[in-house]
Amino acid sequence: MKKLAIILILSMIACSNVLAQIESGDKEISFMGYFSTFVGEDVETNGYGSLQISYGRYYSRYLQLGIAPTISFSTGQDEDGDPKIETQFSGSVFFNFNLTAASRTIPYITGRYYQFTFDIPDEADFIDYSYITIGLGIKNFINEYTTFNTLATYGFSPVEENEGGIVVIMAGLSFIF
Questions:
Q1: How far apart (Å, rounded) are the C-alpha atoms in residues 18 and 53?
Q2: pLDDT tens-digit profile of 139-164?
Q3: Is the N or C terminus of the chain more exposed, i.e. has fewer CB atoms within 10 Å?
Q4: How far does CA 31 lie from the centroid of its chain?
Q5: Where in the chain are the domains?
Q6: How many CA within 13 A on the CB side of residue 50?
């Protein structure tokens, strides 16, 4: 009977850790890799690989606000036609809304203002390279402070003349403290 009581108590402690993963005031740093591509009828399809570090703060157990600087890599050609890897800096501000806060697996909805590049040509406006994205993600807790985070979003440009949209698929680790 003592063994059963000890097992029951340990199980309750373990479950309470799983159920108390996110609290108001928690902060989170994420290291994500992602693939993005532009899509649409009159859009040249291409792909970008990116690395993103994001920082967010939970203002409740459900609502997180944050920023995410990003460096993107794409293949191109130099003046001689030889292949080269190009890099550019981008970033976003975001909100995540958890659909649950007391679970080992937390699905969430995200919304982002995504700036595709900060290297704006003279004839263009800053907003010409902006996207508003929405998507769904899932955080799976590995331990009390670490999650495997996956996310898929679709975005559109706030500029009417811009055709098509952007699809982003992300995966990485998040650390809550």
A1: 25
A2: 999 998 999 999 999 999 898 887 88
A3: N
A4: 9
A5: 2-176
A6: 27
